[in-house]
Design goal:
- The complex is a heterodimer of chains A (about 725) and B (about 180).
- Chain A has about 725 residues and is α+β, with helices and mostly antiparallel strands.
- In chain A, about 55% of the residues lie in helices and about 15% in strands.
- Chain A has 20 helices and 17 strands.
- In chain A, the strands form 4 sheets. In chain A, strands 2-1-5-4-3 form a 5-stranded antiparallel beta sheet, sandwiched between helices. In chain A, strands 7-6-10-9-8 form a 5-stranded antiparallel beta sheet, sandwiched between helices.
- The longest helix of chain A is centred in the middle third of the chain and has 49 residues.
- Chain A is rod-shaped, with a radius of gyration of 71 Å.
- In chain B, the strands form 2 sheets. In chain B, strands 4, 5, 6, 7, 9, 10 and 11 form a 7-stranded antiparallel beta sheet that branches. In chain B, strands 1, 2, 3 and 8 form a 4-stranded antiparallel beta sheet that branches.
- The termini of chain B are far apart.
- Chain B has about 180 residues and is an alpha+beta fold.
- The chains are: A alpha+beta (about 725), B alpha+beta (about 180).
- Chains A and B meet through helix 3, helix 5, strand 3, helix 9 and helix 10 of A and helix 1, helix 2, strand 6, strand 7 and helix 4 of B.
Chain lengths: ~725, ~180
């Protein structure tokens, strides 16, 4: 076996090292159990150590189990992946192991207790007891017989024992005829006087042993001693013999000496009685050990069951932990992926289904990561394209917006917000209906889109075009709408692409061109006959006035006067039209607008007819502007004239002309204290022939607008607070072209 | 809890053995110098509870270990034992002869007696037990002599050992109070 194989085996067994320890403990327990079931004395020195080892092992396992259960609880609290599954598996394992083990425990305990009880039989006990009693009786009988015989011999040889003790003792021994007997005569003080033996078996005691004190005292008091005694031998055993000790009395009945006779039992009798005694002793020992044996067996069995159960549960915890680990890692990996961490990879050297699953998980994570990276790249590309498109759209002067099929605003470029006069960025996602609720002026625009949505079929490739009027805050605008159905990507009704532009200037230009044409024709067709009419009226008046009577003369005078006056009026009108129709060549030059204003104001001194007071508030920092002096003068005349006419009915007519500059524009402002310009008139005030004044031609503001267009300037008309009209003109400081 | 007995047993094992001295008593030890040795005489009344007596009559031999220690009287963290002498005695019963067999396993002496108290007295007799050579002692220095008696559970049948640990009827151990003795050569 190679070192690497050994290392692998070591790694695999490492989690189970405690289990192996348990196995060793169990082996010890089983040895302990088997030995405790025996009563043999050959297992005396390791019992306590084994018991202690097992108890300590049980405590260690219990502590370890407690630690493991606490860890499991912590895992549950922390919601560690796989913890609940592990708890279930451990519980099932504990039940699967524990229940059969407990059943086996109670069954084994019962069987063992029953077996122990079966060892004992009342009849056997009685027989053994009877045998013992019989043995004792036999020995007692033999003892009494020996006593009687010895007493009789002493009576016959009393004199001889006193006078010739050695000889008499030998004679007595021969008379006893017992080959296994010793006779010893002791003085009353206990000293040996003589001894005699026919065939001494007890060769260990060649010299007679002194009488024990208790026997000596008993016999000296005159009480014979007869009993089965035991003498310890040098080999650690005892020798059984019948000891008879009798007092030897003289004629005066005084005890002169003590005669001891030791009758050694015949071998057959001794062996039989010894066997009976041993058998009885063994049975009595077993009977006494019955309950301790049961207790011991129960405790040992319990210890084995406890250790096995603890070991099984702990091994189960470890095994389920090993089993759950891949599941936990898979769960952890899945959670990481769910959180967006696709770099998670699982390491495994398993070659089973779980190992395959972990490899598959790694492949899946890699694929997801690749897909995510590709998606991210696509998103970046899409975002770039979207940004590019947004920039492009924002660079377009035409308004572009898109709606989804439910007419919710999806995109809108800057031009759309500018043209519609409201920010659409914060309206994205809202429906057009919601938009119109917030911005009512957009109503015609929204209605046009809704109409287009109805007209355009989902698969329509044709564009819906229309022109609408749209009243902005400052003026009326004309919008050109082109609406297309967006491509249907999800096989549902596509949204709308709305492209629109403000064609007010174009329409206005077209109108101006038409008006100019009309004006030119009017000037040409009307102006020519006016002078002959006027001359004819003068001539008629001059030739006929003096030839008519007073009444007719008065009528003629009045009629010709009217003709001349109306012709003059028509000439002015024609001149105005002619001016409007003309396209004089504009000569641009640097003009100090402040000086120009001061010069212009001088031309409107206060008179009885001209009561309007003109004030100036000029910004001295304003730079020069590039303008045509003549056209600028005409514009000023028109605006001042309008102000004078508007303030005719005011008690203190006033006009304030002011300038103000920033880095891009020069702002010229006219504020009068007239009645102001009605709101509806503001929308078409720059249209030719639009006026609310009875004497006006309606061309003044149209000419003003045209002059301002020539200077790339803008004009805005509003009401002045609290009274009057406010006209704001912005001259670009850096005009294009 | 059914396993609480394990805790109790371990706790009992850790207790000082003097708590168990219920049936064993000792008279005063009598040290003396014989030749070149310190010898001790004494008498111990070895404990014998009814359960132990019953076990004895059922053929179970009871063994005791009698130990005499001589220690320095000065105590630091623990007392330094200079020497100790153990004597192991055994008591058994012969039902046929109705006689108690008394064995001194250390001195290899064997006696018999029909009377249990007398047999216990005989077993508990300490006669001229040599403890230490006087060469190892310092003149006029106080020493402590201590007597300990233990029931040898290891000699009991296996089935009885666990019960002897748990059952108070088997607690007859004795740790005598240290007795001061001054060596005067």
């Amino acid at each position: 076996m190679g070192i690497s194989t050994m290392m692998r085996l070591h790694d695999k067994l490492k989690p189970y090292r405690f289990v192996l320890l348990i196995a060793v403990l169990l082996v010890f327990s089983l040895i302990l159990l088997s030995q405790s079931l025996q009563t043999a004395q050959d297992f005396t020195n390791t019992y306590g150590a084994l018991l202690l080892v097992n108890l300590l092992g049980a405590f260690i396992l219990l502590a370890w189990l407690a630690v493991n259960l606490w860890q499991l609880k912590q895992d549950i609290v922390k919601q560690t992946p796989g913890a609940k599954l592990q708890i279930r598996l451990v519980a099932v394992l504990a039940l699967l192991i524990g229940i059969p083990m407990l059943v086996a425990f109670f069954f084994a305990r019962h069987v063992i207790h029953q077996s122990v009880e079966n060892w004992f039989d009342t009849q056997t006990e009685e027989v053994l007891q009877d045998a013992l009693t019989l043995s004792r009786s036999l020995l007692d009988l033999k003892t009494r017989d020996s006593l009687n015989r010895l007493e009789g011999l002493i009576q016959l040889n009393k004199e001889g024992l006193i006078t010739q003790p050695t000889f008499t003792l030998t004679t007595l021994a021969e008379m006893l005829g017992d080959r296994n007997s010793d006779l010893t005569l002791f003085a009353s003080a206990g000293q040996v006087i003589a001894t005699a033996s026919i065939d001494a078996i007890n060769t260990n005691n060649l010299l007679p042993q002194p009488l024990p004190d208790n026997i000596l005292q008993q016999v000296r008091q005159g009480t014979p001693y007869a009993a089965l005694d035991a003498d310890p031998l040098s080999d650690g055993t005892v020798s059984s013999f019948i000891r008879i000790v009798l007092p030897v009395r003289d004629t005066n009945q005084r005890i002169t000496s003590l005669l001891q006779a030791q009758f050694h039992l015949p071998d057959e009798l001794r062996q039989l009685t010894d066997r009976v005694s041993k058998a009885n002793a063994q049975y009595q020992t077993l009977a006494f050990l019955r309950e301790p044996l049961k207790t011991s067996v129960t405790i040992n069995l319990s210890l084995v069951v406890l250790l096995t159960l603890l070991g099984a549960v702990l091994a189960g915890i470890q095994a389920t932990r090993n089993f759950i680990r891949p599941v936990s890692e898979l769960t952890q990996g899945a959670r990481s992926i769910a959180k967006g961490d696709y770099s998670q990879r699982l390491e495994t050297d398993r070659h089973d289904e779980l190992g395959d699953l972990m490899h598959t998980f790694n492949d899946m994570a890699e694929q997801i990561q690749k897909s995510r990276d590709e998606l991210r790249r696509s998103q970046l590309t899409a975002e770039g394209q979207k940004r590019y498109l947004q920039i492009l759209l924002n660079q377009i002067t035409a308004g572009v917006l898109t709606c989804d099929p439910k007419l919710r605003l999806r995109t809108a470029n800057n031009a759309a917000s500018r043209l519609l006069g409201t920010s659409l960025d914060n309206q994205l996602g809202h429906t057009l209906t919601e938009l119109v609720e917030k911005h009512s002026p957009l109503s015609p625009f929204i209605e046009a889109i809704e109409a287009a949505a109805q007209d355009l079929s989902p698969q329509s490739e044709k564009a819906w075009e229309n022109q609408i009027s749209f009243d902005a805050a400052d003026s009326r605008h004309i919008l050109m709408l082109r609406i297309n159905r967006l491509p249907d990507l999800l096989h549902t009704s596509g949204g709308l692409l709305v492209v629109f532009d403000d064609i007010t200037a174009i329409v206005q230009s077209q109108r101006y061109a038409a008006w100019q044409d009309i004006a030119r024709r009017l000037a040409h067709e009307i102006k020519n006959p006016l002078t002959p009419i006027q001359l004819a009226a003068d001539r008629m008046r001059y030739r006929l006035l003096d030839h008519l009577n007073e009444e007719d003369a008065r009528i003629l005078d009045r009629a010709t006067h009217t003709i001349i006056q109306q012709v003059d009026s028509m000439k002015r009108l024609v001149q105005d039209f002619s001016d409007f129709a003309k396209s004089p060549k504009v000569v641009m030059q640097q003009i100090d607008l402040n000086n120009f204003i001061q010069d212009m104001v001088i031309m409107y001194p206060l008179t009885d007819k001209q009561r309007m007071k003109i004030k100036q508030a000029l910004d001295a920092q304003c730079p020069h502007i590039i303008a045509d002096l003549g056209r600028l003068r005409q514009m000023f005349h028109n605006l001042i004239k309008n102000a004078i006419e508007a303030t005719e009915k005011e008690a203190n007519p006033r006009l304030l002309i002011s300038t103000q500059c920033d880095k891009d524009n020069l702002q010229l402002c006219f504020i009068d204290n007239g009645p102001g310009i009605p709101e509806d008139l503001r929308l078409w005030i720059f249209e030719p022939y639009s006026t609310n004044k009875p004497k006006g031609t309606g061309l003044g503001m149209a000419i003003v607008k045209r002059i301002l267009d020539e200077h790339q300037a803008s004009i805005n008309i509003s009401s002045n607070d609290p009274q009057g009209a406010k006209i704001v003109i912005l001259f670009p400081l850096n005009p294009q072209g | 809890m059914r396993w609480s007995w394990l805790v109790i047993t371990l706790s009992l094992l850790s207790y000082h053995s003097s708590l168990w001295a219920e049936a064993t008593r000792a008279t005063l030890l009598q040290p003396s110098i014989q030749g070149q040795h310190l010898v001790v005489d004494g008498q111990i009344s070895l404990g014998m509870t009814p359960t132990m007596e019953k076990a004895l009559l059922h053929g179970i031999a009871i063994e005791y270990t009698i130990q005499v220690k001589i220690m320095d009287s000065a105590q630091w963290l623990w007392r330094n034992t200079l020497a100790s002498r153990k004597m192991r005695v055994r008591l058994s019963y012969d039902p046929l002869k109705q006689t108690y067999l008394l064995s001194n396993l250390t001195l290899s002496r064997l006696n018999t007696d029909r009377d249990l108290p007398r047999a216990l007295t005989t077993l508990g007799a300490i006669q001229s037990l040599p403890i230490i050579s006087i060469q190892a002692l310092e003149a006029n220095k106080a020493y402590l002599l201590q007597l300990e008696v233990q029931l040898e559970r290891e000699s009991l049948p296996n089935a009885l050992r666990l019960s002897s640990l748990i059952d108070s009827e088997w607690r007859i151990n004795l740790t005598g109070e240290p007795q001061s003795w001054v060596f005067q050569p």
